[in-house]
Amino acid sequence: MDETTGRDEGSGHPGQGSLLPVGAGGADGEQRPGGAPARRSRRDRRGRGVRGLLLPVAAPGYRTRAERFDEAVLATVERLEKAWGRELAGTEFAVEDVPPSDPSPWETGGVPMGRYFPAESGQPGRVVVYRRPVENRAVGPSDVVELVRDVVVEQVAHLLARSPEEIDPHYRDLG
């Protein structure tokens, strides 16, 4: 009880906690220039508590687009390794967001969706799939999976000097 006002210190407005003296700092003791308390990074609107997650971690919608894209690439690579395991031994597969701004001499027109690097001087062969160009060309989530499959098959075909149809009989199948 505050003797000068006759009220409890924390009973200002409903939902308001105890009052801090001016310049006492924020929730973590930080101060702004001039002695004002620092703002909290998360807001507690109208006394209802801090917002939680919109989806539980176990829900399928919780995964990001990048995680779903990585899973599509991994599923395609695993399927190809079953059929072409010996030829693909040591080959690295990677996902990058966007291609570098300096295209290779053989890449003409448009933004590449993938790129292969042949094995040379002790470096293993490498296939890179670019997430953003693939997602931009796809109409929906199921198209992303099909486009990822086609891009990986095309790059593996270039790497192994074979036709995409030879690498995957379902290449360019719709559905």
Task: Detail the topology: elements first, then pairings.
Layout: H1 65-84, E1 92-96, E2 114-117, E3 126-130, H2 131-137, H3 141-160, H4 164-167
Parallel strand pairs: 1-3
Antiparallel strand pairs: 2-3
Helix pairs in contact: 1-3
Features:
single chain; 175 residues; alpha+beta; Zincin-like; 3-stranded mixed sheet; 4 helices; 29% helix; 8% strand
Could you characterize what this model shows?
- This protein is of the alpha+beta class and 175 residues long.
- The chain folds into two domains: 22-52, no CATH class; 60-103 and 110-167, 2-Layer Sandwich (Zincin-like).
- The chain is 29% helix and 8% strand.
- The protein has helices spanning 65-84, 131-137, 141-160, 164-167; strands at residues 92-96, 114-117, 126-130.
- It has a three-stranded mixed sheet with strand order 1-3-2.
- Strand 2 and strand 3 (126-130) form a beta hairpin.
- The longest helix has 20 residues, at 65-84.
- It starts with 64 loop residues before the first helix and ends in an 8-residue tail after the last helix.
- The model is unreliable at 9-28 (pLDDT under 50).
Short description:
With 175 residues, this protein is an alpha+beta fold.
Give the total of beta strands. Answer: 3
CATH-derived architecture of the largest domain: 2-Layer Sandwich
pLDDT averaged over residues: 78
CATH topology of the largest domain: Zincin-like
Distance separating the two termini: 73 Å
**CATH class group of the largest domain:** Alpha Beta
> Can you tell me the residue ranges where pLDDT is under 50 for at least 5 consecutive residues?
9-28
Question: Helical proportion?
Answer: 25-40%
Approximate strand percentage: 5-15%
Structural domain count: 2
Strand order in the largest sheet: 1-3-2
Category from helices, strands and their pairing? alpha+beta
Number of helices: 4
How big is the Rg?
28 Å
Order of helices and strands: HEEEHHH
